[in-house]
Each structure stands twice: as structure tokens, then as C-alpha cells.
Design goal:
Length: about 500
């Protein structure tokens, strides 16, 4: 066999995925399900009630569809990235063949016979250029298909989103600890702005009365960041068992919350009476939904180890359908079961004095649920942000050439301090969700996948030709869909800005 054909066969058969265990499509869908259904779901019931149950239902279903559409864009772009890497390796093999053999060889890339499948062979045969074997993260895709300006905008958007994530995590943990430590808020106080100045402890001891709920919140915040922040100086990864533990706790908490809300509805009737349509709550709902359906930045790492990806988009659509039904169940039960909903749903289950020990344990578990889960995620998100900041400002191939302060101290500090300062003075999780989901989340979920897939298609068509078939091409491949996504992102962002201006005025 000519060395060139042997090299092409080696190219086609060589596994491109990183070393690691592969798993079935169903396990992969569970991972995607767990990735999407995270702490963002805890903000849905309050946002659902504010926007009205009819408007919220329509919006949630539509935003789920838009998230799925862009997930198919990420999958298609990942396949294009694999094709580019294979093309580059094939060119290297060709150059090696020409250097080592001065003989006439076939000039066409489409080959049969010795090759089990053609690398490229017309409009009807899928090309083996396109695959999802190699994990290609969004940052790598941006480096492949964006120019310098596009790469800077990409990293800035991603970093802003991760900063928002860290801020939401910090505020959620601190508020949860505050509500567990402090005495319950009197039922006659419904304005959350008045809670901050309340005494934390209902006792006659003057020293305890000196602490307000806001002060306890800030103490909890400083303690949390003080304990979790130092991990950003190291390379910490969640173990498999830690993932299983936090996943089990998350689903136990969600099941308990839904069951308790349904029990309240069955026993006491509907205590909440949300309107059918309330337009002023739409921006908050939009931010919560975008945040709750966010998976695009981590999707490549989950789908590359899946075995049998032939019908992957269909299975992803099934996953999104189940997630949408779950969100509707969580939001509907919470919106109608409680007369007042906190921005963080678990705060509606603050422990109360009761004689049922088991019920009290369950309430403490739910109240501390964000503390358990977010404490394990905070270091991972912080390290991810630190690495992206380094990639934006430093040459990672020459990282060791920089001085110690720049390599080890500056970027970890810049990662942790801004979220700490923001949440020290702004504890409103709803505002954080609205900003992170509506602005940075729009970029991560809508703009980046759309611009990536448009650039990837153009790049691969110029590189491989129009006759090469991408079997992972999005179901929404017409250019009109991409234009629609961009227009939708623009309209939604505009509405959020107008709403924020109206609130200030």
C-alpha cells in the first residue's frame, strides 16, 4: 500500500477524543440534563409569578426552543472544527509523503478500495472529515473561526458571564446562611428592602440586636469567599464521586420542593395568585430562563465522549422537552403554592419552629441546599474564569516566562475580588440574574453560537468545497434562522435595557 494511502487510513482510524471513558447516549443525556437543570432553576418560580403564568409559560417554551436551536449550532461548529483539524493533519501527511517518496501518486482525495469509507465523495455520501470525536471547546472554536477582534469580544463576553456566575453563587450562599442563622422575617413585612435593617436575632440581648440581617449576610459572604476563594490559586477539579454526590443532593432537593409545594396546594389551596400576563416582569423572566437553559459553554466536553452520535440532535431535543416540562412543574407549583416567593426558591423553605423533627430536618436541608452545591462549583467556575483571563491577556504558550506575581497572584485576585465587592453592596439575586442572563447570557447562548456557525460554514466551504457533506449540520441551517436568532437577541436585550431605564426613572 502506498505510504500516502496508509497515512490517510491512519488519519481516519486514529481516535481524536482525549483519553477518558466513553459513555452511552443515555448517560450523555443525563449529564446534559444535570448541566442545564442547576441552580438557575431556583430563580424560575419567582420570575414566573412576576411575569404572569400565561406569558411565562409561552416565554419559557419559546426560550427553550431558542436554546436548543443554538445547541445544534454548537454541535455543527464542533463538527466543523474536527474537519479543520483533520484537514490540517491530512495536509501534513501529504507533505511527508511528497518528501519521502518521489513517485507518481493519485491526485484525488476521494478514494475507495483500501479505505473503508471515502474521506470526501460527493453530495450524497457523508464526509469523514466531519465528526464529534475530538473535544473542541468554545475558546478553540473562536481561535479557529474568529479574527482577533472576534476573539477579544468572545473572551470578554465569557468572562463577564463567569463573573456574573460567581456573583450569583456568592450572594445565594450568603443569603441562605443568613436566613438559616437569623430569626424568621415577620409576616407583616413583605418589602424585601426593609429586611436588611431588621435585627437578625429576636432576643432581648442588646449585643445580638446590634447585628442586622444585612450585617450577617456580609459576614457570611466574607466567610464563604475566604474559604472558597483560595482554591483559585490552584488547579482543582471535581472528582467523579463529588459530582455524583452533588447531583444526588440536587435532585433530592428538587423532588422535595415540588412535593412540598404540591402538598401545600392540596392541603391549603392556592396561596399565590399570579396574574395571567404582567409585562413588567418579562425582563426578569428572560434573564432567569436564559440562565436556566445555559449549557452551550460546556456542551462540547459532554458530547465528545458519547458513543453513537448519529441521532444526537434528536436526543438533545428530547432532553430539552423533558427539562421544559420539569421547569413548568417547578414554576407552576411554586407560583401558586406560596403567597410570596423569594428570588431564590429555597428561601421559601426556611426552617420554622415545629414539633415534627423530620420536617424540620428537611427544611434545614432545603435552606442550606445552595450552600452545599454552590460551594463545590465556586472553585471550578473561578478557576475557569482565571484561565480565560490569562488566555485573553497572556501568551499561554510562554506562560512560564512571566514573573511570579503575574502568573500566580494577579489573575486569581482579579478573579475573586470583583464578585466579592459587587455582592457585598448588592445582595439582590434577581438583579444579578437579570443582568447576567440578559446580557452576558445572551452573548453566550445566542450570539456566540450563531456567529461561530456562520463563520465555520464559510471557512469549511472554502477549505473543503461545497460538495463535502456535514452529517451534523443543524436542522436550522438556513441563513434565515441565524438572522432570526440575532434579531431576537437584539430585541430582548433592548427590552431589558428599556426596563432598567424605566426602573431608575
Amino acid at each position: 500500500m502506498p505510504r500516502r494511502l496508509w497515512g490517510i487510513r491512519r488519519l481516519l482510524k486514529m481516535p481524536l477524543a482525549e483519553a477518558g471513558d466513553q459513555y452511552s447516549i443515555w448517560i450523555g443525556l443525563i449529564y446534559v440534563f444535570n448541566l442545564i437543570v442547576g441552580t438557575g432553576a431556583l430563580t424560575l418560580p419567582a420570575a414566573f409569578a412576576k411575569a404572569g403564568w400565561v406569558l411565562s409559560t409561552i416565554s419559557l417554551v419559546f426560550l427553550a426552543f431558542m436554546s436548543f436551536l443554538n445547541a445544534t449550532y454548537v454541535i455543527e461548529t464542533m463538527a466543523c472544527s474536527n474537519a479543520v483539524y483533520k484537514w490540517k493533519r491530512l495536509q501534513a501527511i501529504k507533505r511527508e509523503s511528497i518528501q519521502n517518496h518521489d513517485s507518481d501518486e493519485e491526485q484525488h482525495v476521494c478514494q475507495h478500495g483500501d479505505l473503508e469509507e471515502p474521506l470526501v465523495c460527493g453530495d450524497t455520501v457523508p464526509s469523514r472529515y466531519y465528526s464529534l470525536d475530538r473535544r473542541v471547546e468554545l475558546g478553540e472554536m473562536a481561535n479557529l473561526f474568529y479574527n482577533r477582534t472576534g476573539r477579544i469580544l468572545f473572551y470578554c463576553t465569557l468572562c463577564i458571564y463567569l463573573y456574573g456566575d460567581l456573583s450569583i453563587y456568592s450572594a445565594a450562599v450568603a443569603k441562605s446562611i443568613m436566613d438559616v442563622i437569623c430569626s424568621p422575617v415577620p409576616s407583616n413585612i413583605t418589602d424585601s428592602n426593609e429586611w436588611d435593617e431588621l435585627a437578625c436575632f429576636n432576643t432581648s440581648t442588646s449585643s445580638l440586636h446590634a447585628y442586622t440581617r444585612l450585617e450577617v449576610y456580609r459576614i457570611a459572604l466574607l466567610t464563604f469567599v475566604g474559604l472558597m476563594g483560595p482554591f483559585v490559586f490552584f488547579n482543582v477539579q471535581k472528582t467523579k464521586y463529588l459530582q455524583l454526590f452533588t447531583t444526588g443532593m440536587r435532585w433530592l432537593a428538587f423532588a422535595i420542593m415540588i412535593s412540598m409545594a404540591i402538598r401545600l396546594l392540596a392541603g391549603s389551596g392556592a396561596q399565590g395568585h399570579p396574574a395571567a400576563v404582567h409585562l413588567s416582569g418579562l425582563p426578569t423572566l428572560f434573564g432567569a430562563c436564559v440562565y436556566s437553559f445555559m449549557c452551550h459553554h460546556s456542551l462540547p466536553g459532554l458530547i465528545s465522549p458519547i458513543r453513537g452520535k448519529t441521532h444526537l440532535p434528536l436526543y438533545i431535543a428530547l432532553d430539552y422537552s423533558l427539562i421544559t416540562l420539569f421547569y413548568l412543574l417547578l414554576a407552576f407549583s411554586g407560583a401558586f403554592a406560596f403567597a410570596h416567593l423569594n428570588d431564590l426558591y429555597t428561601l421559601n423553605f426556611v426552617p420554622k419552629d415545629n414539633e415534627n423533627l423530620l420536617l424540620e430536618i428537611v427544611e434545614y436541608f432545603l435552606a442550606l441546599f445552595p450552600v452545599f452545591t454552590l460551594s463545590t462549583s465556586f472553585p471550578i467556575i473561578a478557576i475557569t474564569l482565571r484561565n480565560n483571563l490569562q488566555s485573553l491577556f497572556l501568551d499561554m504558550s510562554q506562560l512560564e516566562s512571566y514573573n511570579f506575581v503575574l502568573r500566580k497572584l494577579l489573575f486569581p485576585i482579579v478573579t475573586v475580588v470583583p464578585p466579592l465587592l459587587l455582592t457585598y453592596y448588592l445582595e439582590d439575586i434577581g438583579v444579578l440574574i437579570e443582568f447576567t442572563g440578559s446580557f452576558a447570557g445572551t452573548g453566550i447562548q445566542y450570539l456566540i453560537p450563531t456567529f461561530l456557525v456562520m463563520s465555520a460554514r464559510r471557512h469549511c466551504n472554502n477549505l473543503l468545497g461545497l460538495g463535502v457533506v456535514n452529517k451534523y449540520k443543524s436542522l436550522f441551517s438556513h441563513t434565515a434562522w441565524a438572522i432570526f436568532v440575532l434579531l431576537w437577541a437584539f430585541v430582548c436585550t433592548t427590552l431589558v435595557i428599556v426596563n432598567m431605564v424605566e426602573k431608575k426613572s
